[in-house]
Amino acid sequence: MAVTLESPESAGCATEQGELSSRAAAEAYIGGVCFKLGPPALIGAELEWLTVQGECSASGPSAAPRPQLSALADALGPYAPRSIAPDSPALALPGGSRVTLEPGGQIELSSAPYGAAAQLCDRLRDDARMLRKLLESRSIRTVSVAADPDRRPKRLLQLPRYRAMERSFGGIGPFGKLMMCNTAATQVSVDAGADRADVTARWSALYAVGPALLAAFACSPALRGAPPGTWASQRMRAWLRLDNTRTRPPVLDWADPIAAYGRWALDVPLLCVRRPDGGAERGNGDCAEWSAPPGATFADWLCGALDDEVGRRPGISDLDYHLTTLFPPVRASGHLEVRYIDAQPGDAWTVPVHVIDALMSSPAVVAEAGSIAAPLAGRWVDAARYGLADPDIRAAAVALLRLAAEHTATDDAARAVESAAKRCRHGRTPTEDDTEHSPEPTETAL
């Protein structure tokens, strides 16, 4: 869930003291900070795994206790995130990836950005191997599943952000805590675009191809604690059942994503309001309550409607933080962060990395991908529920993967993506694939 936002160079968005002068200034700031313009050149990825500690169980891949936070901190040493080790230097692993922890003990590697998908995969694969070795020193194992089929949700991180999040989502149903504690994803990030027109094309294509790629890589049919129902991606089901204002922006109506994202973000209800104890978010003891006034938006806070409840107006740092509490299928974070792909078995996460890289490789490919997927635009629920069993979604998934295979940067990537296209054509999920993407023996896979 972590995202890094950098302030834009442009003037006029806010005062020198970091105060936001108006809604228009806030919208302009969001447009500058969330969409960095320049020729697309870089790609990054984030990988998440469930974690268990102790002996393997025959009853299920995750049927073992969650690790103790102290054991995770000991295992990670200087690479431990400050959320569990406040004095840690939080060093990057040798390949440039940084380790973070999700509320239920899921562990995440966030790569450095690279100029080539193959280089990204090599470095991230090496860092994942080192991470597993570090964890094994304290009998902690990673589990390559996108939804926990065995354990009830349990929040390990006691940070105020997650307390406020659990409280907010708890009023909607069980999916908030399930999403926070029992799911894992593969996320791929690409540059926003060279100019506003390029951003619009890339943004629109990533949303259009989303349902088909969600189905192509869906592999989370079981999630303990979820209401009954057969779903190809229980992970995405959980996301779709959260606060729709936060997870489903009306992108089909957006002619200019840069402007529309700012308007949308300001009208999303506040998930939390940070209180004066700045050390609390780093895990330094108790803190003031971070809950936000129910239903209040950032725009409400900005215009003074929350002066009595909050006692202050928001600044740039508050807006930056609010942006990290938005969870759309594609999030603008300076780059474009694709968030709709399940965690994959073993090293098969490299396939969606190559697919996204190929589909964004040129304006012509972006346009063709968007055209292929256009009939499926907005069919997120169908893709999560039926996956490749839906013939229209399956056909689009195969066509997109074949297009990607034609435009990958290496022969190895082309073969891997073509193999995934063949799998999809036969309606098989990534966990049913019998090709070279089998789990490594050091991991547990569903």
Overview in brief:
With 446 residues, the chain is α+β, with helices and mostly antiparallel strands. The chain is 40% helix and 10% strand. It has 18 helices and 8 strands.
Search tags:
single chain, 446 residues, alpha+beta, 8-stranded mixed sheet, 18 helices, 8 strands, disordered N terminus
What's the SSE blueprint?
Blueprint: H1 23-34, E1 43-53, H2 69-76, E2 98-101, E3 107-110, H3 117-136, E4 140-144, H4 160-170, H5 175-182, E5 185-191, H6 196-208, H7 210-216, H8 234-240, H9 244-247, H10 257-266, H11 298-303, H12 307-310, H13 316-323, E6 330-332, E7 335-342, H14 350-359, H15 363-373, H16 380-386, H17 391-406, H18 411-425, E8 444-445
Parallel strand pairs: 4-8
Antiparallel strand pairs: 1-3, 1-4, 1-5, 2-3, 5-7, 6-7
Helix pairs in contact: 1-10, 4-5, 5-8, 6-15, 7-16, 7-17, 8-16, 14-17, 14-18, 15-17, 17-18
Overall 3D form: globular
The biggest sheet, with number of strands, parallel, antiparallel or mixed sense and barrel status, is: 8 strands, mixed
Return the string of H and E elements: HEHEEHEHHEHHHHHHHHEEHHHHHE
Q: How many DSSP helices?
A: 18
Residue stretches low in confidence (pLDDT < 50, at least 5 long) are: 1-17, 278-287, 435-446
The SS-based structural class is alpha+beta
Round the mean pLDDT to the nearest integer and report it.
91
In helices, the fraction of residues equals: 25-40%
Distance between the termini: 23 Å
Please give the number of β-strands: 8
Query: Beta-strand level of the residues, as a percent range?
Result: 5-15%
Oligomeric state of shown chains: single chain
